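Progress against Task 2.4 (sequence-to-structure conversion) is shown through the following example record, which the project officer requested during the mid-term review.
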Amino acid sequence: MKVMTATEASRSFATVLDEAEHGETIVVTRGGKQIAVIGPAPTAPGRMVKAFLARRAGTLDADFEADVAAAREAIDDEMRGTWPDA
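Structure tokens generated for the chain above:
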């Protein structure tokens, strides 16, 4: 874990993002106090939700299943495929 001041993070934000992309966690401080943590984004949330719903198929109440179906229908074709599944 790397620690840097807000000023340092501001001046080298592209580098901070590159480091986070490569697995580094950066703690940002201001006045000696931690104010933020920048790190890699979690992966596979789409896959985890999909797996959960597959395991629970047929066991969820009808209202929940209808809500999920309605939400899927609400996503237009342009947006499909933009959410990571891996």
